[in-house]
């Protein structure tokens, strides 16, 4: 089935404003980086500038496969989704370039960009290990959502 056909069941494409609002309210997604075999998928926390850039803070330590793959990627993908219930969910797929930010860019982030949320384990590692800030520049975005009601509450279904 195509996305357009799923509209008959209550799924809709998100417009730019809805996508930006959704990204602004989230902090975790899945980064997809190309490899010779299957893509490398990594759960990541992120900060969003409200426009066209995500910021990702990597704990790189002595070596990092994620950093190596990011450094050589010409294009990457980032998936952000939220599943509140089986009847209410959103999904935004971003495509763009990813690159290591300059060392001084972390201090120069705009005030409204919050550093990515991190699980406690990574927060502790950030204070002890080498980190690198990466910038994901969004070139394409697609969002879909379903904001329905359970069948028993949906008046259109009940008739």
Structure description:
It contains 5 helices and 8 strands; from the N terminus they run H-E-H-E-E-E-E-H-E-E-H-E-H. With 159 residues, the chain is an alpha+beta fold. The protein has one domain: Roll (Pnp Oxidase, Chain A). Strands 1, 2, 3, 4, 5, 6, 7 and 8 form an 8-stranded antiparallel sheet that branches. A hairpin with a 4-residue loop joins strand 6 and strand 7. The mean pLDDT is 83.
In brief:
This protein has 159 residues and is α+β, with helices and mostly antiparallel strands. It has a single domain (3-153), classed as Pnp Oxidase, Chain A. The chain contains 5 helices and 8 strands; from the N terminus they run H-E-H-E-E-E-E-H-E-E-H-E-H.
Which key phrases capture this entry?
single chain; 159 residues; alpha+beta; Pnp Oxidase, Chain A; eight-stranded antiparallel sheet; elongated
Secondary structure tally: strands: 8
> Into how many domains do the coordinates divide?
1
Count of runs of 4 or more consecutive helical residues: 5
First and last CA, distance: 26 Å
- Which overall shape is indicated by the principal axes computed on the Cα atoms? elongated
The CATH C-level class name: Mainly Beta
Poorly predicted spans: none
What is the CATH homologous superfamily assignment? Electron Transport, Fmn-binding Protein, Chain A
Architecture blueprint of SSEs:
Layout: H1 3-6, E1 11-13, H2 16-25, E2 28-33, E3 40-45, E4 47-48, E5 53-59, H3 65-72, E6 76-83, E7 88-100, H4 120-128, E8 131-147, H5 155-158
Antiparallel strand pairs: 1-8, 2-3, 2-6, 4-5, 5-8, 6-7, 7-8
């Amino acid at each position: 089935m195509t996305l357009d056909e799923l509209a008959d069941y209550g799924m809709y494409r998100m417009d730019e404003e809805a996508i930006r609002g959704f990204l602004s309210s989230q902090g975790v997604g899945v980064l997809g980086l190309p490899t010779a075999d299957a893509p490398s998928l990594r759960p990541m926390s992120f900060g969003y500038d409200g426009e066209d850039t995500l910021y990702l803070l990597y704990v790189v330590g002595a070596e990092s496969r994620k950093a190596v793959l990011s450094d050589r990627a010409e294009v990457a993908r980032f998936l952000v989704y939220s599943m509140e219930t089986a009847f209410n969910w959103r999904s935004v797929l971003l495509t763009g370039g990813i690159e290591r930010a300059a060392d001084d860019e972390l201090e120069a982030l705009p005030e409204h960009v919050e550093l990515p949320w991190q699980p406690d384990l990574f927060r502790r590692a950030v204070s002890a290990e080498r980190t690198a800030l990466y910038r994901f520049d969004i070139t394409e975005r697609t969002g879909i959502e379903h904001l329905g009601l359970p069948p028993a509450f949906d008046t259109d279904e009940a008739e």
